[in-house]
Amino acid sequence: MDDRAHTSTRLFGETPPGFRAADRDLRIDVCRGIALWWIFLDHVPNNIGSWLTPRNYGFCDAAEIFMFISGVTCALAYGRAREREGWSGMIGRSLRRGWDIYAAFLLLTLACAILAYLAGSDDLADESNTRVLLEHPGATLAHAAILQYRPVNTDVLPVFVIFHVLFAPLLWLLLRAPNATLGVSLLLYALVHLFGWRVPAWPNGVWFFNPLAWQLLIVLGAWCVIEGEKFRPWVMSRPALVFAVLYLIFGLVLAQSWSIEALVPQTLTDLLAPPDKSNLSPMRLLHFVALAIVALRFIPRNWEGLSTPVLSCAKCCGQNSLPIYCFGVLLALASQLTMLDLSEGLAMQIVVSVAGVLMMIVVARVLNAISIQRERKSAGTQSIGKVPPVR
User: Fold this and answer.
1) I need a surface site. Which of 26, 65, 77, 103 has the fewest CB within 10 A?
2) What are phi and psi of 356, to 5 degrees?
3) Signal peptide location in the record (predicted)?
4) How many CB atoms lie within 10 A of CB 270?
């Protein structure tokens, strides 16, 4: 008997299992919230808090985690929207989200410039890449409007604008030929490294996050939602875990050799220089994959630790990723200014790190409370408008 319920091949046009899941995977918001904390800590220069992030213990950092999870959440959100509202509704949602990110990017650009101007610090203006905006506002804002100019630490937002706008055709391809689509993404990634392809930018000519390379993590995240269950046995296998652990140890040893003292021969350290982040070096990509394998192996979907107070705070930040990311960029600039004006000592580094993360949590809690209040008002308005049934 042909039992479709037990076949390992998803039929053409069939809804992927990830779209049918009723409950939300808490690991997504928790990981995204922790990544936001790490990004903030890494954005504060000369900060002891950055030693709490993956940056100093391997090749990749929080950027890879944030980008991959964005691909996962886009596939889940837009895939379910397509199921409920059709392609037209899904496209409308993706374009509106792209517009929200675009507007947030422009407002954040202005906010960074205003902060640098009010601070009156030439060092902050130079390090935040806002001096050109303060000296040539017209030309700079024109280039910002077409995503060619970006203050420091805002580079990821234009990348997300592009991917949200283009996610509808990407989802269409992934639903029809997921493995071929991932293959094309890998091919484009390889061509970027072979021929040095880049997207034009202004005034320095390059995007810090080259979208032609970083698209791979977005596509990989979406592919995992649609097709990943078929490869889960391999990902959870012992050989995959052994490879992941060995690669993470290799990355740890080499990272410590770059930053503290040589633990491997100098020839090897020089040969494997710190991998390129702008084009998502293969060493960084493999390091992220190794981290993901270990995390999936030891942090199950129903892990009780996800409900602890600390991870609940991370989940809250992850649920408000766009405003918290923007707020974190401004906090990093304010923290840098505070350290320049007052002290760059260890105590100040700890204060700005802890205070920054706590402020992100408070803002996220406030945003969640506002969202819940709006939902209650909306539900109350709809219930008032209904005609009670005749008994």
Assistant:
1) 103
2) -65, -45
3) none
4) 8
3-state secondary structure of 247: helix
Query: pLDDT tens across 313-368, in order?
Result: 999 999 999 999 999 999 999 999 999 888 889 999 999 999 999 999 999 999 99
Percent helix, strand and coil across the chain, each rounded to 5?
A: 75, 0, 25
- Report which residue type is found at 42: D
Q: Where on the phi/psi map is residue 280: left (φ > 0), alpha (ψ -120 to 50), or beta?
A: left
Asked whether the CA dihedral 235, 237, 243, 245 is positive or negative, the reply is positive
Q: Which of 113, 145, 147, 148 is nearest to 129 (CA)?
A: 113
**Cβ-contact 212, 193 below 8 angstroms:** no
Cα(228)–Cα(218) distance, integer angstroms? 14
The tokens for 139 are 């030309």
Nearest to 295 by CA among 337, 245, 257: 245
Q: What is the pTM of this model?
A: 0.90
Question: Each residue of 233-252: pLDDT tens digit?
Answer: 999 999 999 999 999 999 99
Residues 140 and 112: beta-carbon distance below 8 Å: no
DSSP string, 287-300: HHHHHHHHHHHHS-
Amino acid at 199: V
Residue pair 176/170 in contact (Cβ under 8 Å)? The answer is: no
**Domain range summary for the chain, segments of one domain joined by +:** 26-366
- C-alpha–C-alpha distance, residues 326 and 322, integer Å: 6
**355, 332 contact by CB (below 8 A):** no
**26/4 Cα distance (integer angstroms):** 30
